[in-house]
Structures are given as C-alpha cells and as structure tokens.
Automatic annotation (TrEMBL):
This is DNA polymerase III, epsilon subunit. The lineage of its organism: Bacteria, Pseudomonadati, Pseudomonadota, Alphaproteobacteria, Hyphomicrobiales. CDD domains: DEDDh, NT_GlnE_GlnD_like. GO terms for molecular function: 3'-5' exonuclease activity; [protein-PII] uridylyltransferase activity; nucleic acid binding. It comes from Mesorhizobium alhagi CCNWXJ12-2. GO terms for biological process: DNA replication proofreading.
Amino acid sequence: MKPATGATPLIALDAVALDTETTGLDTAKARIVQIGAIAISRGRILDGRQIEMLVDPEIAIPSASTRIHGITNAIVRNAPAFASAWTAVQAFVENGIIIGHAIGFDLSMLEREATRAGLSWKKPRSLCVRLLARLVQPGQTDLSLDAIAARLGIVIEDRHSALGDARAAAEIFVALLPKLQERGIRTLAEAERACMEQRAERETGHRAGWADPVSRPAPPSFRSVDPFAYRHRVGELMSSPPVVVVPSISVMDAIALMIARRISSLFVADPAEPGQPLDAYGIVTERDVMRLLASDSEQALATPVDGIASRPLASIREQAFAYRAVGRMDRLGIRHLAVRHEDGRLAGVVSARDLLKLRASAAINLDDTIEHAASPAEMAAAWAMLPGVADALIAEGIDARAIAEIVSEELCAMTRRAAILAEAEMAREGHGPPPCPFAVLVLGSGGRGESLLAADQDNAIVFAEGDPDGPVDRWFARLGEKIADLLDQSGVPYCKGGVMAKNALWRGSLGHWKERVADWIGRSRPQDLLNVDIFFDLRPVHGDLALGEALFAHAYELGHTRPDFAKLLGEQVAPGNPFTLFGGLQLEDGRIDLKLHGLFPVVAMARTLAIRHGIRARSTRERLEGLIGLDIGGDQDMTAMVSAHSVLLALLLAQQTRDLYAGLPVSNRVELVKLDKAQRTELKAALKALQPASDLVRDLMFG
C-alpha cells in the first residue's frame, strides 16, 4: 500500500476505519479492551479485510463499562497484552489513513498504551468523520455516531463493539465522499485543512485529553525519479522505419530476415509497407516463433507467418514519453509496442531492449494505470501521483515545459479512459454502440501540452454525420455527460466555462463544426474569440483520430486565409502591467497572477502569429520556434519569450504542488515570499520579456 499524500483524492484513499473499546473515558487512566478495524479502498469497504482483537487491560473492567460494550474480565482473561495486539494491528493498517468517529479519543488511548508498553509511537495521518459530517451538515448539534448514521440512512450493527463501530465509521466516510466533493473538498489535504479550521470542536477534545483528530497538511518526503524516463520520447527510442512483410512468407524466411536485420519483430500486412493505419497490421516476434517451434518443430518453418501474427496491435504515440511505454509493456506483459503517428498510422516499433535502462529502474513513479482503470477511484489514484512526479522533476532540473507536457499526457489519458468507460456504460444501459465514427478532443492547455496541476475539463466531440439535436447528436450528448461526470469524480473538475462535450456548443458533426468555426472566424464576437483560443489547440485523444486531425487542419487553414481574423485575435493580446511605479511586483494577498501577466500574453501571441503565418503546431514553444524558423521576429525577442514561458511554468508548477499538499485552492497565482532572491530576479526578467507581446503581434502580423 503506497502512502497517501495531501494530493490524494479522498475517493482514492487506502484507509482503515478503527475503533477501540476501553475500561472508561478518562484517557489518563482507562485501558483498551478491544480494537477493531476494517479496510477502505478507493471508496469501497473491503469486507474481507477486517480485524478485531480483545486486549488484556491488566486492570479490572468497571461494571459500568461492561454494561456498554459487554466485555467482562473473564472474556479478556486469556487475551494478549496491548504490545502483542498492537503489532498485529500495525501490520493490518500499514500506510493507511486512520478514520474513525471522535478518533482523537482512540488515538490518545493508543498512544498512552504504547508508552506504557515501551513501544515507539508516531501519530498516524487521520480523519474524523465527526468533523467531516459537520462540514457537510452545518448547523447539526448532535454529532454522535448514531445521529450521523441515522441522517445518512446507515443502520449500525453491533453497536459498542470495536468492529461494529469501526464499520459504522467506514460507512459514514464512504457516504460523505460525494457530499464533500460537492463542497469542493476533494483531497486528503483539503479535508485536513477544513477539519483543522473547526477549532472549537478540536479544543473540546483537547480539554478532554484527546489527541488532535487531524494533522496539519504536510508535503511528502522527497522521492527521486529517473529523469531519463521523463525526458525522452518514444519516437527517439523506436526503430524506424518498421520492417513489414507480406502475410504469405514462411516462418523460416521471417527468421532469416530478423537475423539479417538484427531485429526481434516483424509487422505483417498486404501491401508490405509502413505508414498504413494500425489495423492493417499484425506483429510477429521472436517469442512467437520460439513458441511455434516448440509446439510443432517439423512443419513450423513452412507455416505462413500470418498464422502466428498477433492482432490487434498494442501501440503507443510517437510523442509519448518513455515512462508511458515502460508502464504499458509491464501492464500488458509484452516486449514490443507498435509506435503510431498522431493520425494513427504505423511509424515504428519500440522494444523492451530499447527501454532496458528504464525497465531496470525503480524510480518511474507514473505508469500505465490510467489506461486500464476500471473506475473513477482508480483513475483518481493514478492522477494523484502527478504532483509528486512534478515536484521531483523540478528538483532534477527538467525543463518545466516537458513537465507540463507530462501533465497534459496524463490529462489526455484521463479523458481517453473516461470516454472508454462512458462508451461501456452506454452499452450496458442499452444505448448501443456509437452511431457513427467520432473523436473525443481535448482543448486548451491540455491540447497544447501545457497543462498545469490546476487543470479542469476542456473537451469536445466531433462525429462523422448527424443533425443538431438529432438522434446521433443526442447519443453523443449522453456520452459527453458521462465523460464529464467520470472526469469530475476522478479529480478533473467540470469546466466552469462549460467547455465540455455534454454542452451543445462543444459537439457536432464534422460538417457542423466547419460551419461553426467559419462563423466564429467570420463574425469574431468577443465570445467567438474566446472559443477560438481554446479550439485552435485541440488534440484528438479517442476514437477516429483522423477525424479530429481533419477538423484541426481545416480550422487552421481557414484562420490562416483570413488576415482580418488574425488581426482581431492579436488585439486581444494585451498583458497587464505587473510592475509598480518603483519596479516592484503588483501583488494581491501576497501573490501575483502569472497567467494574467505572463502565460496568457505569450500563449495568445504565439497562437495568433502561428495561425496568421500557417504554422500548424500546437504548443507555444513549437509555434515560437516556427516563427523563428521563418525569420519572423527577431531571434533575440522570440528566444527570450521561449525562455520566459519556461520560467513561468516552473514557478507555477512549484507553487501548485505546495498548494496541493497544503490543501489550498490551486490557482495561477504565485506567492512571492516563497521565492528566493534568484527566483524573484528571474521572474521579473521573464515578465519584462513578455511586455512587448502585443506590439510584436501588431508588427509581425504581415511579415
């Protein structure tokens, strides 16, 4: 069980609900007579994982206490002492978060018993359902276990037994999860911070001698990563062009070809050429050949190679980072992955040998978990690993733009997986398969590959044909709703601006999308320009990817041919002045908004000029470098903007990881006091370099 961090969503927690029965309520004198615990994993109570132990208190149990829990001196006469019982309980709990009702009492009892027994004690990370219930049921005065359970419709069985009360606390916690999420309390750190703010309730416990039921959110201990896995892309490591053979050649000829080329796999297709859609190919590996020879050695060599080819291909994007290939091979138990271009055509192959250095490393914290997650909780658990990876990569000196691309990769994977789960849910509900080819698109920063840790949903759907509000459109409206709900439950919240495929403006047939884009470009109202900003960064992530790429290409070409449209876009690039009269930075509550004063101007400028000059790229860096390549703008100005963009991303990523672990709302505002002198100097230089953005757009619009 991996220890949770403050960024772990509550729905993804591995936790243990715990309760104790004691000889009394005075923590200074009482002793434990029973401990009960039950496991909770990713929003579900694990009935098969529970423990209940009697403990010899080594003092007489008062009759008043026996009347409550029914445990007598005779019952505990042969029970183990606390030291022995606690060893078993600790093994059961592992790294889980401790959950209970009025858990401060139980923690205090456990600490005092450990001290008496001469055992070391470290207060575990914990949550109290009494405090959590107050957050979602404000104004309620009765916060007893029975009252909270009754309000949530929970029937408590075996009341006043340690396991019975632990189970009740577990059921209350699970029932509170969606209610907490509705109130914006999604992560462990956010729950801890909200509970810490209930000072009166905590003070009452302190006066009674109880331990604090919750600890102040804290960052996790540093964990290193293998930077190679996050620095290099599959396209850099793959073998290309792929070797392709016709289906009719014999296994003997295939073996001879692999030996001659010193390769361990072949693709099979007719015609035998690369660059076709993936579904045209099968793959044969050296292991396939060895298995065939072991089963039928005499006739195997004459067998047509098509008979042992595996289909469909397991594949990965050419631009995916190497860590994703390692995780996918491990998950699927294979040694070769087909590599595909963005439009789904075969580009090459990557093998376990190519990734040998990475596969031997234990420091690849991200894997392929999202790609086979079966529920929002599993998706959330994978998504929660990102802040730690980002923090470690910043410490390793990895370019912040690469880190933002990794976050975007995971966001696109989340969207893709949500779409797959949504399709399956549609089928289970009797809505049938998709009525026509379609593509799910990620828009905005996710499409550009520049997502930060405050990402929300920006998605759309394009389908082959169908009228607005017709049967096909309504099918995709339901799909869009399910995608949005799954992402929200997984920790990627709904877009506040409504940029989601469940809304009619963000889905439609290819023909309807073309009309919509033409209208945006032709009329260019303020809202149209905002939509264009998001839309021109689109990236297809699921379904018929070529359909999404066709829409992207059409929109870019249309925008490129309308100089008046590009000019209107350029007029939106107006960075506010972040400096005070005396050269300081303008702050609000000690923070400066780096999106407003830095990211927005450079992103908008790069997008506008790329559209105007036909640079069909998505990322800000590629767009700026494309302009440099066309000798548009001075190299010094553009290079300074490329560097400034990286500086702002690095500062924002670092701030967002701190805020996530502290349970603070994640935003685009950086706390100046957290920056050292060198970082402040670097920030000022970056913001100064971006001040000419609007002038550059105007000057470079036509050459």
